[in-house]
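Teaching note: in complex prediction, the entire set of molecules is handled at once rather than each chain in isolation. The prompt given to students was simply: 'Predict the structure of this complex.' The entities are:
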Amino acid sequence: MSATDAGTITYTVPKRRHPVVLFVTQQPLGAAGLVLIVLMLTASLFAGFVAPYDPLAVDYESMLGAPSWAHLLGTDAFGRDVLSRIIYGARTALVVGLASSLLGCTLGAVIGMVSAYFGGRVDMLIQRLMDILLSFPIIVLALAVVAVLGKFVVGGIDVNLIIAIAVPMVPKVARVVRSSALAIREMPYVDAARAAGFSDRRIIFRHIMPNVVAPYLIMFTAFIAQAILLEASLSFLGLGVTEPTASWGLMLSGSSADFYQQAPWMIVFPGVAISLAVFAFNLFGDSLRDWLDPKIKL
Amino acid sequence: MVYHPMLRYIVNRLLLMIPTLAGVAVLVFILLRMMPGDIVELKLLAEGGGVDAATIAMERARLGLDKSLWGQFWDWMGGLLRGDLGISMWTGRPVIDEIASRLELSLQVALMATVLATLIAIPLGTISAIFKDTWIDQTIRLFAIAGLAVPSFWLGMIIILTLLLTFNWIPPLTYVPIYEDPWHNLSQLIWPALAVGYRYSAVATRMTRSTILEVMQEDYIRTARAKGIRERIVVARHAMRNAMLPVITVIGLEFAFLIGGLVVTEQVFNLNGLGKLFVETVTRGDFTMVQALVMLIAGFFIFVNFVVDLLYAAFDPRVRYR
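The expected output is the structure of the full assembly:
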């Protein structure tokens, strides 16, 4: 008889649950937002299958048609199907939202990390520059960038519009990432890496970057919502996406405004679409923050 | 030399505003000169008729656009320091007059939105915090997070649509100052104030809720409760007073941003305010006007920021001035 038989200790290993499962159970509201986001993504990816009509198909027979079985959300002043245009508009909103948020947050994060890591004069200079950018209201800055860059359309999407929406995010992200990175710079392992003779670039990207992933992700989701709103506003003003590309903001401008009374569905539904999309990303972003790092203030 | 630390703080902050404002000026100047298109050609073409090179050159010289970039920049800076904003390149009227006639309207809408938002946000946020995690809290939070999602210009359209469909009435289209005809003025401007005020109140409600929740964790709240003070007094005297600073901050910062936020909403209500002026002048490339507007908006924003920081230092003895 061996000694181990007598003293067997049994214990149960806590079941390791997938982080997605954990998120869904702990943050039901955020999960609801996530479901909406996934629905939107699917609809816009497969817009060709989901949309009942071609969003650009003009049909003078059914101009300003009220919602009906043939056109669930009615038709606009050119007889185009509102539902189909909203579905294709989701594609525009998501592409612009994701791309500009990715660009703005990444640029901001790099600037913030560089600023924190080098400190001193570099930090001082970058901070002053960010202060200058921060003293513009978001839409004023975006408008100025749009006016300067003009249009550069690739595949129906204006690349310069994406840049214009990304620019106002940069100083905000840089500020938050900088403050996170400042604390990490003082960590012994960063000293160790420096003592080992690693290059600055390697220390920034290998040692500091993994530690600012949480604020980055939180801001990335939050700014998608902001970008969708900004795209809608700029398109509404006629300075963003241009006809005939389907865009929610564009659907609210021009002819829609002239037919308020006859065809209210033309302005009601696109606005609902914008609100739902922004709502979904805000809900998800909020929960993500509570879940990852409740102390972060945007 | 011994200065009061508060005074030194104020002077320091004021001095720090100068490089920021100068940076804004340089940035705007450079951005504008990078803009494609030329206001002189645009304007002369808009007036119709054939335009020859000589006329264009003459007009450019009249507007000072024939000078070097340095020359133009110094002209502008010199004017600014003398308090002269120049002449609008498009209308030919002094920039200061064009702005003054619109500032009143935009400022009134912004102030009304602020009052509305504050009146809604502080009670709602406090109630939400007191009844944390009950259905009351959930409803208020939903109201607030929806306020962040609804675009204010669309809300404006919906307000007009609702008024039209239910009362067969639309707000008056011409602006009359409040001191001339308050009823006419309010019946026109209350709607845009509501439209932008919803988002504003949502931001402030969330801030109120989270700071009250934070403050309720403090030791002095426990002490107050332990002394046997009624909960209502604890919330009103101890929690709310201490929670107000961050809320004031958010209200102040959002107010500064509101001037920018009006850009889109003014279009919906067809209001001839600063926002509309900004969109028009940016698309026309009216350098003097855009420069003046941006300096005004950025300067205002920096100033509000400064005042907010000052309030912090003045009201919270724990805040130390650097």
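Point out the following to students. The two ends of chain B are 17 Å apart (CA to CA). Chain B touches chain A through 46 residues (CB under 8 Å).
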